[in-house]
Amino acid sequence: MNNKPVYLTVEGLAKLKAELNHLITVERPRVAARIHDAKLDGDITENAEYEDAKQEQSFLEGRIGTLEGQLKNAEVIEKTNGDRVGIGSKVVIRGEDGQETFTIVGSAEAAPREGRISNESPVGAALMGHKKGDSVVVQAPAGASTFTVVSIH
Questions:
Q1: 24-45: string of b/e by CB count within 10 Å (b at 16+)?
Q2: What is the pLDDT of residue 1?
Q3: How far apart (Å, rounded) are the C-alpha atoms in residues 146 and 153?
Q4: In this predicted model, what pLDDT tens digit does every residue of 89-127 receive, in sequence order?
Q5: Which CATH number fits domain 90-152: 3.10.50.30, 1.20.1250.20, 1.10.10.10, 3.40.50.2300?
Q6: Are 68 and 5 in contact (CB under 8 A)?
Q7: Backbone phi, then psi, for 111, in 5-degree steps?
């Protein structure tokens, strides 16, 4: 069993709880009804609807288990003081391609396209603990890149 902390913002915690609640109260009964209806169609050995419903149930139960594990190990991120980059920090960096803004979050909340990067990602891990004005070298699969921390909020 994985007891690794899952770092979440208050909003991220609420989002995971809402998803878990929806899966348990809405999706689980819907899938159970699909399985029940498929069984009524007769022989389940060659019933595609039954097999599809069972696969959906398997996926659903896996997601419920994942969410329950994340919530069990959840540690809510406190607001940072802004001196150093930490989980929950909104960081503006400047590199060869210009300025970028990221919010450092735990891996469960990471959404790079939305500007939320994990503290475990190459950029997130490299920024952790740095101050405004620091130069940071990021070792990524494409090679090393250097960034300057412009601001921390």
A1: eeebeeebeebbeebeeeeeee
A2: 54
A3: 21
A4: 999 999 988 999 999 999 899 999 999 999 999 999 999
A5: 3.10.50.30
A6: no
A7: -150, 80
